[in-house]
What we know:
The complex is a heterodimer. Chain A is an all-alpha fold. Helix content of chain A is 82%, strand content 0%. Chain A has helices at residues 3-39, 44-52, 56-71, 82-119, 124-151. In chain B, strands 1, 2, 7, 8 and 9 form a five-stranded antiparallel beta sheet that branches. Chain B has a three-stranded antiparallel beta sheet with strand order 4-6-5, with no helix packed on it.
Amino acid sequence: MxxxxxxxxxxxxxxxxxxxGSAKGVGGAAQTAMGVLSxxxxxxxxxxxxxLLPGTQGLYGFIVGFxxxxxxxxxxxxxxxLMQGLAYVAASLAIGFGGMISGFAQGKASVAxxxxxxxxxxxxxxxxxxxxxxxxxxxxxxxVSLLMVxxxxxxxx
Amino acid sequence: MKSVRIIALKEDRKxxxxxxxxxxxxxxxxxxxxxxxxxxxxxxxxLQQFDRNEQLxxxxxxxxxxxSPEKKSLLDxxxxxxxxxxxxxxxxxxxxxxxVGICKKICDLEKQKADLSAERVRLKTQTxxxxxxxxxxxxxxxxxxxxxxxxxxxxxKMFDDVTLAEALAQEExxxxxxxxxxxxxxxxxxxxxxxxxQKEKAENILRTLGFTRPLNPTSRTPSEKIKRLRQKDxxxxxxxxxxxxxxxxxxxxxxxxxxTIDYYSVRSEKYRVISELDQSNHTFILYGYVPECDCDKLxxxxxxxxxxxxxxxxxxxxxxxxLKNNKFAEPAESIVTMYSPPSKExxxxxxxxxxxxxxxxxxxxxxxxxxxxxLIATSIALKVFKPDKSMRNNLKLFRNCGVATVFWGLVFGxxxxxxxxxxxxLFTGNNVTMAELLPWPVLDTQKDALTIMILSIGLGLVHILxxxxxxxxxxxxxxxxxxxxxxxxxxxxxxxxxxVLAAGVAASPVLITxxxxxAIASAAGLVLTQGRAKKGIFGKLIGGxxxxxxxxxxxxxxxxxxxxxxxxxxxxxxxxxxxxxxxLMGTNIFGIIFMIVIFIAGHLITIGLNALGxxxxxxRLQYVEMxxxxxxxxxxxxxxxxxxxxNFKMKNSEEI
Lengths: 157, 656
């Protein structure tokens, strides 16, 4: 029964930490994008894409959090044992920290990409691809967290 | 692409150029020097004139937009340009002097308005400065009387009746009288009366206190002056309003101005071409590039227009590139050109890219409901708006992606997430899953995550192998056999070996041996061949062994495809979350309204976020993982001499 406390903690860690990363990343990118838009509002579409790119980390964290809730008795599934609860916490650390720090880094890349795109719109695709290079690390963290979270209910602890 | 040379009489120049421009068949080639006996015409004065006119009119349009913003709906951007006959341009041309005049007037009016506004600001500061003196009932420049000096002015600090008296009393036997009108932390307005004989003495003291006289004293009392200023301000305001009204009268010309801007940009383009022509006294020569399939069309066009000679020859290495693809691949051309048009060395990667683009996009977006929404929305937009080529291709791109999305949605058993199962359960009280509800076997993104991950990486392997296959083909085509077999072929067999090995681990030990055999043989081949450019037997061997290190880059490329799983899962889970939220209020009437609202809003958010994610990541997989295997890029895009404007396009011209 005590496991549920830790499972909930795990869901929070996954959602909040990666959310912080995305919030900071998107926030910084949005500031720069607004600077560009104040000069030329026709670039809104491109700026929107570049601004949103660091936003995925938060989503990944949220998904891990949600899957934990589904598995651990909050929204369905069975109540985990103490060890299972701790295992959820351990699993959520990957996307929590991976998401947060890659969110910061991707935000910086986004800011640079936006400045580059503002100088010459034809650089858009290059900026976009360069920014997504950062994303892979968030993705790897996400997949690791995800595979663990999915398999924890099946492990007897 | 062919190189073309058109020789014709100078008197036909205008006609031929117009025909060429209206048909957009040819890209004019820039030659550094002209042929012997020919010269160039400098058209820069005309170009500057056009430029000035364009700027003037753009400014006028901006002013009009400010006076009355144009109502534009978001959907307008899908609409295609109006098709016009060449005569239409003639009518715009005829009206252009008048329009330029009108634009000048508009700009003048705007300038008047700006001047008036500046004047208003000036009056405002004056009023503010006078405000503290409001209660003074003598003019600011009241002269001294026969025996008394009047000193009107301000101190830069706070004084009240007591402190001012103290300050003035520093000088003994100074007789004074004063009145304070306004006092604040850093400003005191006062009038001081002293006997005329003591004026100098008083002024000395006042100077030490920082007393200053007003800058521009008037002969009216302050309150009267303020009133006058207010009156003037009102007059100015009225004038500004009148000017704005005047400006509004010109709004009807907005379309005409916009058309005329287009007309000048069309003419600019023509004059730029004229400056590229080699001209003699009676003839001129035009060099250019034309797509091979359009050669006959061009010849017929020119020969119909005037008496001329059209010669074709093989284009050189620096010729521009025009992609030509079938209906399936054409929409993806923009993705290729966004990266870089192919160079002479490259094969056109569009067909392969198109297939994988649709396929991977579908796998990431992976929802039959969303795919259907995309499919229907883009099909309607294509039918209703009849958009121009680039917009049409973008819409088609997403339509095709929509088809793939439906396919993968059905494979993953996701239709608006798990909406059918959720609502079925809600209203019947059952407890079924999507897998049970659908009649075909599905892969559940959550339960079968590992399987889908292996599938993703497998598809990634295929993608990469296809990319390497292209490299192999390109090398063979250019007869670089060593590069084809050793650098590309051996890595391909190596990857295949590993794949067989991996399959063997899961299925049968025979495959393990076969796979390991292929991999080891390829590795040996690589060790033997990769150092071939190095000198000495050791150099060759070390080079060969070091090349095996490249395996890391292939592994990281392959892992990159795990995003296919991650993004697919993201879509599925987000949809599931909103479905769950929508059922929270139960099945009563409010619950159902709540359900509909959440369902629509939630799924719109999911579509927006995930379509963007899928688009970006699909693109990345193409650019970074596949293009890096074979694609050089760096070609120039074919940019024909054409009518390029915002409002209309030529009838019967090639689409650009």
